[in-house]
Amino acid sequence: KAVDAMTARFVQTSANGRSIGGTLTLKRPGHIRFQYDKGVPLLVVGDGSSLYMIDYQVKQVSRWPIGNSPLGVLLNPNRDLSRFARVIADPADGPMLVEARDPKHPEFGVLTIAFRRTPGAPAGLTLDGWSVADAQNNHTTVRLSDQRYNVPVAKDAFSWIDPRPRKPGGKL
């Protein structure tokens, strides 16, 4: 059975070794939320077409088309992965690694996805995490735990509060 929705705990480690955690909620196609733990003023949300990074500390919002993000590989069930991804390691007793890159857009970086063989998991595989190498070869790693598949996800799970100050008349 395909994975349509998923929740998990995550720990994200940046190139400088700093780790932060939170809760991941994913609903295909195109919806994802990285809700960081209390005290981390960041939120990453994909609403089906765009990926937003909201920084509540500096009141900034950055937006990219989901297709321009390495995570597009995970979020679009209709994407032809054979054009972008290939299995780079598949040992019998270790993780299966899949590398995804868009040859037409090297600026999107390289995504390496790790799966673990798990009887009873969808397709017998558990998504353990991924690593992204950006165009400057900076690596960010996300490790998952407590994965739950095809769970109910609230409709408002992918909404967010815009921190940018409003101008008179309600405009941003």
Keywords:
172 residues, mainly beta
Descriptive account of the structure:
It is a single chain. Helices cover 2% and strands 47% of the residues. The protein is mainly β and 172 residues long. An eleven-stranded antiparallel beta sheet has the order 6-5-4-3-2-1-11-10-9-8-7, with no helix packed on it. The longest helix has 4 residues, at 72-75. The N and C termini lie far apart (43 Å). The mean pLDDT is 85.
Helix/strand/pairing class, anyone? mainly beta
Number of helices: 1
Low-confidence stretches: none
Per DSSP E runs of 2 or more residues, the count of β-strands stands at 11
Helix amount, in percent?
under 10%
Which outline best applies?
globular
For the largest sheet, list the strands in their spatial order.
6-5-4-3-2-1-11-10-9-8-7
What is the percentage of strand-forming residues?
over 45%
Round the mean pLDDT to the nearest integer and report it.
Answer: 85
First-to-last CA distance: 43 Å
Summarize the structure.
23% of the residues are buried. It contains one helix and eleven strands; from the N terminus they run ββββββαβββββ. 2% of the residues lie in helices and 47% in strands.
